[in-house]
Amino acid sequence: APACGEGKGPQSSSSSNWLKCQTDAECSNLPVAATCGGEGYCVDASGAEVELQVTLEADFSGDVLDPAVFGFETGFALRNGDLESYTDRAENAFLENGELVLVARAEAFDTAEYTSASIETKGKQSFRYGRIEAELKAPAGPGVDPSFWMLPESPGAAERTCDGAECSDGVWPAWGDVVIASLRTDAGAVLGGVNYATPGTPDPLQAHDVTKQTFEPTSDDYHAYRLDWGPERMDWFVDGVQVKSVDLTDPAIYHPTGQNPFRRLFHLKLSLAVGGLAGAPVADDFPQEMRVRLLRVSQYQ
Fold first, then answer.
1. Is the Cβ–Cβ distance between 84 and 273 less than 8 Å?
2. What contacts 297, CB < 8 A, 6 or more positions away?
3. What is the pLDDT of residues 45-87, one digit of tens each?
4. Which of 171, 126, 73 is nearest to 267 (CA)?
5. Contact 27/4 with Cβ under 8 angstroms?
6. DSSP of 87-141, one letter per residue?
7. pLDDT recorded at residue 16
8. What is the pLDDT of residue 190?
């Protein structure tokens, strides 16, 4: 895996880093053709060093989330059999001491018995390739799914897909999703990977995921979760240590309308789900908090 972002920077600002390398292969997973230059940094065809520059760094120091960057998902049981109703209320999402706090509560709200929050950059900020990272602290109780993940910004037409015995028409999973870190306490660790469709035999498409791999640490403190994303692969890091890699050139990945779904724009999501994949919640254990003290995206330029 390339040692991206470890370099002699800053070059012109504190947000710039040249990409360190020892071989040309370490410069292969970039959105520009690059080789390893004589000084040990990835260079483009003109010989200029390729930089990793910050393009989004969330500011959680104010009173409210920046509406130019973030919006709220709202509604009941939006996916995975969850039990919460996502709201945009201050009771479920607020800024405190320079951190974003998402709070799941056991309370009656519309048709739900739990409330929580899911924030996203959909329609405001989307990204293709780069380094995406956050520092998160997960709740310790059962029945919650704190997640840092991505969905396609502009998925195409719905596709017929079967997940086991269940079949449906939709944009998922053919257009992909990316789990940077799912901190479900029922798993005892972190889940990370991608979901996509693979051609069926003969039809329809079959849902496929590689999110089952787990890795430490658990939810005892803040930890840094990072995804390095290029055209060839995605690499996952926890506290600076690489823990996972996915080959995006795998021929099993279905290309809707001929396009690789992981070479398109994605937006970011931070959510605190209740129930569903996380198992049954225990009302007495609520409220539960997910805290975020850093969210940053850097892209190759």
1. yes
2. 54, 55, 56, 57, 125, 127, 130, 131, 132, 133, 268
3. 999 999 989 999 999 999 999 999 999 999 999 998 999 999 9
4. 126
5. no
6. ---TTTEEEETTEEEEEEEEEEETTEEEEE-EEE-TTT--BSSEEEEEEEE---S
7. 47
8. 79
